[in-house]
Amino acid sequence: MAQATAASEKESRASRRFEKIQAIVEQYGAAESALIPILQKVQEEYRYLPEEILTFVATALNLPPATVYGVATFYAQFSLEPKGKYIVRVCDGTACHVRKNQTLISTVKEWLGLKEGQSTTEDMRYTLEIVSCIGACALAPAVVINGKVHGQMTPEKVTKALEELEAAEKAEDK
Amino acid sequence: MDKKSEGYVIVDGVKTPINGHKNLLEVIRASGVDLPTFCYHSELSVYGACRMCIAEIEGRGVQPTCSTPPEDGMVVRTNTEAAMRIRRMSLELMLANHHGNCQTCDKNTHCRLQELAERLGVKKVRFEEPEADVVPVDESNQSIVRDPNKCILCGDCVRMCKEIQGIGVLDFAGRGSNARVTSAFGKGLNQVECVYCGQCAAVCPTGALTVKSVLDQVWKAIHDKNKTVVVQIAPAVRAAIAQEYGIPSGEQAMGKIVTALRRIGFDYVYDTSFTADLTTVEEATEFLGRVAEGKNLPQFTSCCPAWVKFAEQFYPDYLENLSTCKSPQQMFGSLVKKYHAEKLGVPREDIYVVSVMPCTAKKFEAKRPEFSVNNDPDVNAVLSSQELIRMIGQSGIKLADLPLDSMDLPFGFKTGAGVIFGASGGVAEAVLRMAATTEGSHGHTPEFHEVRGLDGLKEASITLDGKEIKLAVVSGLANARNVLDKIKAGEVHYDIVEIMACRGGCIGGGGQPLPNDMEAREERKNMIYDCDAVQSLHNAADNPFVKELYATLLEKPNSHIAHELLHTHYYPRKRIDGQPVELSPAKPEEKIPVQVCVGTNCYLRGSYDTLKKLIEAAKQAGVADKLDFKATFCFEKCVSSPNVQVDGKIYGSVTPDKAEEFFKETIKPVIESQEKVEA
């Protein structure tokens, strides 16, 4: 019974999500000029931009799919690959770079067990992103975990932050 | 004239009038200096990316001239040290990023990049070629080969497809060093809304977009002793060949082509203009029938396969308005296979029909399944004008020096009306000539100059039995979109509309030799009308062999057998291949699939609300977990939209107000019958 509830919960989530996409499109009056904010909101919903949803947005906005694809691939903020539940962004701007952010990157990679060329963990829980300057140079080197900026990071501090996140999730599950 | 377009510019010391030119580049070219460009085409918007047209403007430094408006008193030098250095460096950087293999490239000796490297004297590329990022070549379709490794990002194809053809198949993706020109999601052109007009390849300055060649297959058929190889030549080809070989007229070029093709080994040489005459008779009869019945008007022409595919994808509601006539190429194929099999006793499978076309979409058309009999296509291979030129080159024949010869009969005889099919307005004029000529008038056939020329939209009207018939002639699919939208909105009224995908009609087809710009098209157009002028007959209905064909085989225009051989039908067609949006992820195999189309036509008729209501109805009936809902894109049944597919069967016209009823009467019984089976 518990399983059936979980399945139908998952089911209504999928259709609710799609409903939301239509609501987003309607909110902006399906205007071509609103393509970027629409894609941002779509990404908030799915954590990435699935191909079929981009095709749907192109249809709703009456744009060629190639145009939507072009915009979606132009901006670094958009991802066409599925992302993990938690996003860890290590800043690689000049200030962070000279303050040895490389050690942070290798620490996070090791902690998450990411192989070369891999950025999302197999269980789809974490994604590591190495990003250009986030504008927090005074706090260099900076790491953004789930939208929260952590400044003056060290390998120890970043490990601790990730462990805390893990513990918090376990507590939530219980 | 506004002030900016008056006055003079001093170009390299020469006082040059601005003369209404919109940009400095045109003024410089008018002064006699051919500043090179990759990304500038007068009919496309100005892009200013290639940096080839730079010049030093006094007081302003080095500027791209294509995007600089000319001003009175400007002093420009085109070949200063800085301008030359920057120009050469830009080209060198392009070459560094270009995976060139000139000798085996399709564009060899016709490549703008190659030409400019030579002209600008780039003898060494100092930068290493990136080797790792070679991407696959797209050969997914019959018409166009796309090799992104040779792309220099000038964007000509992007703007051509978007601005002139109104489609937008290609666009830029990524940025910086990852920037590339690609279709949506990098799909093959056969999986997206490409209509295969080949206009992208007509403007591509490198080998990134080329015409797919079937020349080797044609040679193979010629070398096969068991095959009777028949060739048809489209009207527009003669003009392009004349231009390419410097032959003064299309008629003469045709005579030399016939000699060459016989020497190469073709058994019969015919003229597509013959079946163009036949098309005129069939299409005019069909039109008069529709006018009498007052239905399916305006009638759209159906000769252009790129326009037909465009209509199937974007205007499915108007497919009934397309003439059911096959194009002259396909009429030829089905007639010749039947004629040669029956009259000359050659088994159908041993007849190999080749067409030489100005067009890339004709390659796609010939492969449409409805144009085959027992898997044997009516037209076996389609060569572009470019491939014909290559074939003549491979054979070693010096075309310009050849004597003239005439075509075989009966399918080699045409009237002038058949020849003008090669230019925009030709089909319309052929139909008008037939309508305006009384039978047996042996003399003057009226001409309709108002439908001639390269303008994207031309209009005319004639009075027929006291009724005014309004006619539009459209070339360029963006113009077609415009006209169709106006017809849809009731803003304009026409009775018959000729539509050709390429600007200026077939003379500017994607398979024509390069350069294929508006200047070349203008010259070809004039040659086509000259070919018309020298024929003795100008009205398609006067073609004696067309008459004979009706007497011996086809009975009368639009007869049952004419319909069987010469007419066809059209299908709504999806624009993009892809996965549906999954709305019920868990265990689909145990559930009944319900897919609601959210493609454009269905979406515009409220299919999203239909979907929402069906999901809601399923929840209320407590059967949501028995259904696997998906939002999908296009079942190719657009005329009956919105469409819903339940357990593999498609149901049409499920508008939102009928959703609940549809759930009760269609979906529920399916669930119940499945439950019975399980019980």
Description of the molecule:
The complex is a heterodimer of chains A (174) and B (679). Chain A is α+β, with helices and mostly antiparallel strands and 174 residues long. Chain A folds into 2 domains: 2-74, Arc Repressor Mutant, subunit A (Orthogonal Bundle); 86-173, 3-Layer(aba) Sandwich (Glutaredoxin), CATH 3.40.30. Chain A has 7 helices and 4 strands; from the N terminus they run ααααβααβββα. In chain A, strands 2-1-3-4 form a 4-stranded mixed sheet, with helices on one face. With 679 residues, chain B is α/β, with parallel strands linked by helices. Chain B has 4 domains: 3-92, Ubiquitin-like (UB roll), CATH 3.10.20; 97-211, Alpha-Beta Plaits, CATH 3.30.70; 215-566, 3-Layer(aba) Sandwich (Rossmann fold), CATH 3.40.50.1780; 581-678, Glutaredoxin (3-Layer(aba) Sandwich). Chain B has 22 helices and 24 strands. In chain B, the strands form 7 sheets. In chain B, strands 2-1-5-3-4 form a 5-stranded mixed sheet, sandwiched between helices. A 5-stranded mixed sheet of chain B has the order 20-22-21-23-24, covered by helices on one side. Chain B has a 4-stranded parallel sheet with strand order 11-10-13-16, sandwiched between helices. The termini of chain B are far apart. The model of chain B has no long low-confidence stretch (mean pLDDT 94).
Q: What are its keywords?
A:
heterodimer; A: 174 residues; alpha+beta; Arc Repressor Mutant, subunit A; Glutaredoxin; 2 domains; 4-stranded mixed beta sheet; B: 679 residues; alpha/beta; Ubiquitin-like (UB roll); Alpha-Beta Plaits; Rossmann fold; 5-stranded mixed beta sheet; 22 helices; 24 strands; 15% strand
Topology:
The complex is a heterodimer of chains A (174) and B (679).
Chain A: H1 2-27, H2 35-46, H3 51-61, H4 65-74, E1 86-91, H5 94-98, H6 101-112, E2 126-131, E3 143-145, E4 148-150, H7 155-173
Parallel strand pairs in A: 1-2
Antiparallel strand pairs in A: 1-3, 3-4
Helix pairs in contact in A: 1-2, 2-3, 3-4
Chain B: E1 8-11, E2 14-17, H1 24-30, E3 54-57, E4 61-64, E5 75-77, H2 81-96, H3 112-119, E6 144-146, H4 156-164, E7 171-173, E8 180-182, H5 199-203, E9 209-211, H6 215-223, E10 228-233, H7 235-245, H8 250-264, E11 268-271, H9 272-293, E12 299-300, H10 305-314, H11 328-343, E13 351-357, H12 361-366, E14 372-373, E15 376-377, E16 381-384, H13 385-395, H14 416-419, H15 426-436, E17 457-464, E18 467-475, H16 477-488, E19 496-500, H17 518-533, H18 544-554, H19 560-566, E20 581-582, E21 592-597, H20 600-604, H21 607-620, E22 627-632, E23 644-646, E24 649-651, H22 659-678
Parallel strand pairs in B: 1-5, 10-11, 10-13, 12-19, 13-16, 18-19, 21-22
Antiparallel strand pairs in B: 1-2, 3-4, 3-5, 6-9, 7-8, 14-15, 17-18, 20-22, 21-23, 23-24
Helix pairs in contact in B: 7-8, 7-17, 9-11, 9-15, 21-22
